[in-house]
Structures are given as C-alpha cells and as structure tokens.
Amino acid sequence: MSRYLLVILAWLLVGTTVLADGPAGDDTDPVLAARLATLADSPEPVQHYREVRDGGLFSGAVTYTGRLEWREATGELIQWIDTPTSARLAVAGDRVEIQSGTGRPRTLPLSARPGLAAMMSGLRALLTGDVTALETVFTADYLEADNQEWLLHLKPRDAALREHLALLEVRGEDDRLVAIDRVGPEGRRETMTIVPAPDVEQP
Length: 203
What we know:
Blueprint: H1 3-11, H2 30-39, E1 46-54, E2 61-71, E3 76-83, E4 87-92, E5 95-100, E6 106-109, H3 114-127, H4 131-137, E7 138-144, E8 149-156, E9 167-173, E10 176-183, E11 189-195
Antiparallel strand pairs: 1-2, 1-11, 2-3, 3-4, 4-5, 5-6, 7-8, 8-9, 9-10, 10-11
C-alpha cells in the first residue's frame, strides 16, 4: 500500500455524510495513470507531516506536526498528532477510533459516515493507480512540468460533498509527494506538507 495513501486519508477524516455520484466516463488520462502507478509503489509505512490549520478569529493559524502510519498486516491507518497537542486516530475496517492525550478511546462505526467512506474509497483508488475508481468520486485535472513537478486537482463530483470540500490540490515532484492543500467551499485553504523525520522519534 502506498505511503501517500496515509497522508490523504488522514487529511480527509472530516464529518461529511454524503455519497459520491458513481462512475465517471471511460476516458482515462494515460499520463495521470502513469503517475499514479509511481505513487502506488512505495514501501515506506510511516510519514511525518506538518499541517497548518485556521485556528479561528482569535488564535489565527495553528501548526500541527505528527506521523501517519499504514499497518498493512492489520489494514489499519493511524494518525498521531504530536504537537501542539497529543491525539491518536485509527481507522480499520468499519471502525474509527479517536483518542485525545491519555484519555479513553472512543470508537465510531465508519458505516455511519457514508461520505467519508466514499472519499476513502476514491483516494485509495488514487494511490493504488486505479484511475477509473478515482473518478467515481472526483474529477481529476493533472498537469506535469518539464522539471518533474506535477499538480493534481481533485474536485468532488457530488454536489452535497462539495458543500464540505471544494478542491484537493495534490502537489508532487517526480515520485515524491510534496504537499496537499484542502480548499473548503468558502475558499479557505489548509495545507499538509510532508517533512523529513525528526532526529528523535516521537514515542
């Protein structure tokens, strides 16, 4: 499973409750398909990230750092937030488990969040190279420069889903993911950037 799948899925664990419209047409961009194939071929299970979120009117932008891990043996996706607070989110099968600090974990059924399930399905398709499945959830526009930098715009097909998410802007260089911007319907942009592992691993 691609390491980049971790980044996008954890980034999109939001409270949407709608389903995608269904498959797109048969048109497939061969250049996009080739790029997705390179992203789907990475063995590294852990990625470190820095994420900037809007903290609201009084606190301004807030920067979070953490780790994302895919445990292929159990099919579990885990996101840790290390700073400025401590939290853990794990997705496995039809279960989402959320834990803040050392508090008691809360478990929620993923089946109760069909919109989230649809987005996860589409994004898994993105990073396993299945363009047809990807376009079940999103319309995809792909641009690639001569210096190997590339940009992928993903727009939700479902009108109700667009009330929560206007655009995912995925940026990369060659076979490396650089950043993901999540743009809300009001135009607010939040960015997750992939960063090198720190010298001292978080516990």
